[in-house]
Amino acid sequence: MQRGDTLRAHLAxxxxxxxxxxxxxxxxxxxxxxxxxxxxxxxxxxxxAREQHRRQREQGQQLAHIEKSTSRGHPRLARTDRYFRCPxxxxxxxxxxxxxxxxxxxxxxxxxxxxxxxxxxxxxxxxLPKVGxxxxxxxxxxxxxxxxxxxxxxxxxxxxxxxxxxxxxxxLPETTRVCGIDLGLRHFAVxxxxxxxxxxxxxxxxxxxLKHAQRELSRKGEGSKNREKARIRTAxxxxxxxxxxxxxxxxxxxxxxxxxxxxxxxxxAVNGLARTKLAKSVYDAGWSSxxxxxxxKARLHGREFRRIGRFEPTSQLCSACGAKxxxxxxxxxxxxxxxxxxxxxxxxxxxxxxxxLGRREARxxxxxxxxxxxxxxDADEAGSxxxxx
Length: 389
Prior knowledge:
Structural class: alpha+beta
Strand order of the largest sheet: 15-14-13-16-17
Distance between the termini: 96 Å
Oligomer: single chain
Largest sheet: 5 strands, mixed
Shape: extended
Order of helices and strands: HEEHEEEEEEEEEEEEEHHHEHHHEEEH
């Protein structure tokens, strides 16, 4: 028997701490930086070793190096190659392993590559190795032969097949439209041309049903079949909210990419906003997934996607003259510039500033001035002379 197998056998015997027996005399543990030393020195007989081991356990001394598990704080022994390590200066005793509880994931998945020889049959079924032929409800035709397929089981009990294919870009006809988007909570997106898209608030609208389902789930006994049924009902409600939000993001992002050549958004600190009292509304909006869709669709269809810094004062600048009016509380939705007297809608003005900052970054990476330059005044304009600047 190998030394590592002997070590595992002795540690398994120590799992029951009430009837723990010390390991045999021939087993050795390695102290870092030192040579292997005997596990119990000068022990005469198993009875004396058992009594010494019991005294050490009662005194609460650490018998081996214990690490805190990164998952839930359960102790475990750290292993290096073939030995369990002990801290320098500590007496090398063995300790029973405590297995941390298994993590419970909301989804399960398995991936099949070309080597596994999965096939798409002529009748539309998917043949998977060691599984068989599976009926598939196809959402679209595959544009190219797949290189792999991933079968996913979500928390609500639904199976999905995700195929990895390689496709070429599909450029759309070029336009001259440049779009700036200001993302918010009351209006999900405000464009620089004044278009406002209301926030659907899918989670808020489903809160009543979710509240009832969560209450029913909490009343079911642990491990019972009724609890599993209640869990599936709750998961299906959450999946319905997620699917509706994803569908909204896809439709809006596709429409924006089709109509605009350049799309500019602000790099929002979603994690920071999620620590405020608006956390539920921020997560319900799903800004990150929306901007991700804009980015990959722009790359796919030959459009340009730009991000500006999150510290740009887009709500404080006047989009007409560039004057900085200072910070404003959230309840102020309309304000007037003190320099030029232009009245601005807060969100539309921010979207225009975002579009202007996107043009600045494109023209000059160092941040050159992109405001309209001075031009000659009209001859018939009051108070001006020809040639005046």
